Amino acid sequence: MDGTLDHTMLRVSDLEESLDWYQTHLEYEEKDRYEGDGFTIVYLGPEEMHEESAMLELTHNEGEDVELGDAWGHVAVRVPEGELEEHYEQLMDEGVEDYRDPESCGGRYAFVKDPDGHEVEIVQRDHGETWSLDHTMIRVEDADEALGFWTRKFEYDEVGRWEADTFANYFVEPREAADEAMSVELTYNYDGRTYEQGDAWGHLCVRVDDLADDWEQLLEREAPDYRDPESNDDMYAFTTDQDGHEIELLERDPEAVEAESLFPF
C-alpha cells in the first residue's frame, strides 16, 4: 500500500465563492474538475506541488448548504519560517476574517476561516510550497483506538505528539513519508466528550498501489467494509475509522497532477 495522503475533501455551500477564496488568498490553482449529476468536485493546490503533496478537494451539492460538525477540526497550510505575521497580515489586508491571530497563539501559528467556516490553520515550516497542505486535524473519542487504527490498518507511524492538561494532539503519517506530505492530526480531549460529524467535512483520501489487493488487506486487518470497490465501479473505495471519519482509497499516479485529468475514470 502506498499510503500517501492524496487529498482532504470539504463540502462547500457556494462553489464559486469558495473557489475565489482559496484561489485569491491561498493562491491555489484548479487542478481538475468533475461535473456529476447534481454535484461538482474541484481539486485545488499550489501551482508547484511535490509528488507526495496533498490536494484540497471541494465538493458542492446543488441546492444544499453545509453544516459544520465538531468531529473535524481544520486543515493546516504552510508558510516559511519567520513569515507567519507577514502572511497573516496579507490575509487581513485582503479582507479575510480575523479569527485567531499569531499573537493569540503565542506567535507559533494562526487561524482563519473560509466562507463556510472551515478553519484553516497557518503553520511555519522550512519545507513545502507556501500554502501547501501540512496536516488535517480530526477529533477522536479514544486516542488508543485512533492510534491503533492508523498504525495497524494503514501502517502509519506516530511522528509527533503534544500533551496538555486537558487534551493531546498526535500526528501520524506514512512510514518514510516526504516532508512535503500531509499528516493526520488526531486530537483527543480528556473529558470524554462525544462529537457530531456534520456534513461539511467529507473525507481523507489515501493512495493505494492496487485497489483490489489493498482493499482486501484492509478487510483482513478488520477495517470496516463501508463502500467496497465493486459498489464504486472499481474506481475507489471507502472505509471508516472508529469514529466514523470516512477514508477513501484511490489508485493515482502522482504524475497525474500534471496530466490532463486526475480522475481515474
TrEMBL record:
GO BP term (any one): methylglyoxal catabolic process to D-lactate via S-lactoyl-glutathione
Name assigned to this protein: Glyoxalase/bleomycin resistance protein/dioxygenase
Residue stretches making up the VOC domain: 4-125, 132-252
PROSITE patterns hit by this protein: VOC
Keywords from the UniProt entry: Dioxygenase, Oxidoreductase
UniProt cross-references to InterPro entries, sorted A to Z: Glyas_Bleomycin-R_OHBP_Dase (IPR029068), Glyas_Fos-R_dOase_dom (IPR004360), VOC_core (IPR037523)
Top-level taxonomic group: Archaea
GO molecular function, a single term: dioxygenase activity
GO cellular component assignments: cytoplasm
